[in-house]
Amino acid sequence: MENKKYYELTEEGRANLEAERQHLIDVERPNNIKALQDARSQGDLSENADYDAARDEQSRIEARIAEITEILKNVKIITKDKSTRVATGKEVTIKFIEMDKIEVYNIVGTIEADPFEHKISNESPLGKAIIGHDKGAVVTVVTEKGKEFKVEILDIK
Description:
Blueprint: E1 7-9, H1 11-40, H2 49-73, E2 75-77, E3 91-96, E4 101-108, E5 119-121, H3 125-130, E6 138-142, E7 148-156
Parallel strand pairs: 1-2, 4-5
Antiparallel strand pairs: 3-4, 3-7, 6-7
């Protein structure tokens, strides 16, 4: 029996992927087809850099469309619950104790993770460490390289 993989996404993440796929299909694919036609019209394809570049771009576009389609077929939407514990889909305010620094993160699935937008994966060391804890808890986080640091959960929304 096949072990099916599900992808956790917020509703916003699902909508973003659907929009990206539609953009690839409606805009990038037609532009790429035109670029391929233009490159073919130049004649000899064996030493045609424009044709090679357009073929590479075509592969990238089609691979991304297939990847997004697979994700959307196997998506599990993260629902916001009323619990007071840290969980995927929650916004968490954390104090990094040693640095005396406060940050706000959204806990999301791995596909949506973007540290620059303060979206951390539920499978990241920080995400794993704080999930299931309540406001006020002090938690030890162990990085992938074995370094430890403590965080305090200040707020959960």
